[in-house]
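Forgive a beginner's question, but might I ask you for the amino acids of a protein and the tokens describing how it folds?
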Amino acid sequence: MKVKANGITINYRIDGPERAPWLVFSNSLATSLAMWDEQAAALQTSFRVLRYDQRGHGETDAPSGRYAFDTLLDDALALMDAHNIDKAHFAGLSMGGATALGLAERRPQRFHSIVVADSPCQSTPQSSQQWEERIAVAQKQGIEALVEPTVGRWFPPETVAANPPYLDKIRAMIRATPVNGFIGCAAALAAHDYASAVGTVKCPTLFIVGEQDGATPIAMAKLHEKLAGSRFVTLPGAGHISNMDRPAEFSRALRAFLSAA
């Protein structure tokens, strides 16, 4: 299903009872709304689940140029407005996690709770340089050149060696990402900071991270420490795309948090 919002056509899917509370899922870079298949199936009996492809991803429009991260926030709000959603629970991973935190800071009245997964929610000089290097690869060699290096970063070596079926699902989502969309969103990730204002968030917040997601667990533990009353969950053995690496454990943590929120 598609709708015009914030100047682009956004692809989305809705599951669950019409009168249930809204739960919005926001995808990571180089994936699509399909990354949330397991969580949507687990939670659609209790929530009205709205999944969408972020700008430049899946079947959503992919304008050329560098995107500002605030534009991604505006996309999410415009999508909610298009469906007359006054207030929702909002969950995102990586780029989607930063989207969740940015939204809670900018428009707190729109959210019952947020879930920030596998995202430090800010760029650093080192990460900005890495994003620029990946942008250059996408421009010169295309998205295929980024598939295996991305899988290698996202998942622990033993998972990559075992090559479970969901890794092929990840590879397919990366390959399907338009170069314009990758470049635009990578530029947004190279220049964002929602971590600095994390202490201002008023709604219930869950930080959840894969244990083997590089330096991200340490960064997210600091976010948790700065936000009084927030929850922090580490998923043993999981890498960066923790909801696909440990889907049952991720969904259980999500359900427990949302029930309390």
Observations:
- Residues 122 and 193 are 4 Å apart (CA to CA).
